[in-house]
Amino acid sequence: MKELVEVIAKSLVDCPDEVVVTETEKDNSIVVELRVAQEDMGKVIGKQGRIAKAIRSVVKAAASKDDKKVIVDIVQ
């Protein structure tokens, strides 16, 4: 999941070198934290959170075959 989020985020931002994705596993869920440059935050979140919601939907669909819950957090 980490690689998927990283590829999506790097394609959206102006500073792809500053994209940092960390993945931690807790119980039966995976938490993916996405950090981007401050000026790219709007591009990752989108108007009314549409892009963030789309990223979460894609990751959730990819994780459905593993029967694990995936949480994508966009951190400042």
TrEMBL record:
The keyword Transmembrane does not apply. Keywords: Cell shape, Cell wall biogenesis/degradation, Chaperone, Cytoplasm, RNA-binding. GO terms for molecular function: RNA binding. It comes from the Bacteria. GO terms for cellular component: cytoplasm. Pfam families: KH_KhpA-B (PF13083). GO terms for biological process: cell wall organization; peptidoglycan biosynthetic process; regulation of cell shape. Coiled coil: none annotated. Forms a complex with KhpB. A probable RNA chaperone. Forms a complex with KhpB which binds to cellular RNA and controls its expression. Plays a role in peptidoglycan (PG) homeostasis and cell length regulation. This is RNA-binding protein KhpA. It comes from Lachnotalea glycerini. The lineage of its organism: Bacteria, Bacillati, Bacillota, Clostridia, Lachnospirales.
